[in-house]
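Lab notes, practical 5.
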Amino acid sequence: MEDAAGMVELIPDLTFEAFVEETNRVISLAHLYEIFIRRMTLFGLDLINFTVMRDGDVPEKYLGFGIISTYPARWQRYYETHGCAKYDPVLKCAISSSRPFYWRDLERRTRLSRKQIAFLRKAEKSGLHHGVGIPFNGPRTQIAGVALASSNPSPVNMPSLELIFGYCNQFYISFKRILGTAEWQMPPMFELTPKESEVMVCVAHGLKSVEIADVLGMKANTVESHIRDVILKFGASNRGEAATLALYYGLIDLKPHRNWGC
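Output from the prediction step:
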């Protein structure tokens, strides 16, 4: 593409594979944060709060609430001065869940107090819309995650929840790699089976189990079985982390499956 002056405009590669490659090369946390914030912002999720409360692989000086935060300053002050962490339903769900979730679903899926419902309304009025919670719960009582939201109240064309999960897991893997403490830094001494590879490619593309079953011509419970096997092989805490680690180690690539028609 050329602009009015005839200069070539460079269009960034927005694929997940490009994000994995870029974050695998980065060597500083500041650069990693910049890459992650930029990518989430391109998806319309420009409000980001990254928290690591407890993780045996992370040095104490890197633990805390809001390690990086692009939330409005007024909301951050309100959250701190009112001790919102004690009853924040997004934080509580992230601690108790291993799956990504939309903030809007909390009222439907869980029994919230009036104070918690008021908190969610206050967050919206403060400019946090279309919220997403991404927990990084793992071994040794690990508690970490990313809370994402948009400053735009209008509908946002964001990726699927599973794909956002994949991006965030890749970010956290790179975070721990840069710190140099993650146990899974060395390549695993095993390979994925052909079926496991196909399933993980689909997971990395953000497909749900029923969609993967349709693409690969197998039963959904068989897909789930393959995913569980790969999670166990890696010692991962969830399917998103397992797919991201498979990419990290070069065990899969993101070439679409032949049945996708592309």
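Observations recorded by the TA: The longest strand covers residues 47-54. The beta strands are 47-54, 64-69, 101-102, 129-135, 143-150.
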